[in-house]
Amino acid sequence: MPITPRSLRRRWGSTLTALVLAGLSPLATARTEYLFDVSYNDRPIGSHRFTVIREGEQEQVRSEADFEVKVLFMSVFRYRHVANERSASGCLTNLESETDDNGTPFAVGIESMGEALRVTQRQPKAEETTLPVACATTFSYWDLERLQRDALVNAQNGKLTPTRLTDLGATSLDGEEARHYRLEPAGMDPITLWYGDDDQRWLALETRRGDGVLRYRLQDSGVGR
To answer: What is the widest separation between alpha-carbon atoms in the chain?
Structure first.
């Protein structure tokens, strides 16, 4: 049978239909929000919200923190932080963050260059450095698997920090079955983390800061908002 333009169109049409039916359709977008109440020595000081948007292997995360510690109605410490990061297949590709750490400003940009990350710090002083790591991740508390890596990127200052994660076993948190872990970043106090035992949903965080204890407790976790 001779091949004609009409028969080619018919064959290509059938092929494309089969591909679509096989699942080659736009990827679904999943959006999850974590809103944490933050306390210092059991006194409320603010909140920290994480918005995670996933589409296939692509991920966008926005982090927004606002803390204020008061003594006798006087503000003695203020912290504000906003970061926007992008990852692909669990590897950081881009990050922009701005922080006011009790009056000290930080502004950092990170961009993947394939086999390394270029870190551009604009505040508190202008400098550019290179992190020789092809697949890095931040302190991605919402993704327990990533925290198992040997080093994590600090979104505030752009530095790569050696870390170690230890499974502390099963426990309970406010009556909910959970599993807790200890994250040990080099040069920092250990961080204890709690996750849902069945779904690994991030529930809480605790660490020492100065003379007190900083705690995160999940207020709300919304999916698809």
So the answer is: 92
Q: Is the dihedral of CA 37, 63, 117, 87 positive or negative?
A: positive
Residues sharing a CB contact under 8 Å with residue 126, sequence separation 6 or more, in sequence order: none
Structure-block tokens of residue 211: 């003379």
> Can you list the alpha helix ranges (DSSP code H) found in the chain?
5-21
**28-219 fold:** outer membrane lipoprotein receptor (LolB), chain A (2.50.20)
With residue 180 as reference, give the H or E element that holds it. Answer: strand 176-185
Domain ranges of the chain: 28-219
Residue type, 128: E
Q: Which of 87, 45, 85, 33 is CA-nearest to residue 201?
A: 33
**For 45-77, what is each residue's pLDDT tens digit?**
999 999 999 999 999 999 999 999 998 888 889
- Say how many Å lie between the first and final Cα of the chain, rounded: 56
Q: Report whether 69 contacts 77 (CB < 8 A).
A: yes
Q: How far is CA 219 from the centre of its chain?
A: 17
**For residue 141, pLDDT beyond 70:** yes
The residue count of the chain comes to 225
Residue 159, SS3 per DSSP: coil
Q: Report pTM.
A: 0.83
Q: Which of these, 134, 141, 183, lies nearest to 161 by C-alpha position?
A: 183
**Dihedral of CA 201/195/48/110: which sign?**
negative
Q: How far apart (Å, rounded) are the C-alpha atoms in residues 217 and 39?
A: 8
SS3 11: helix
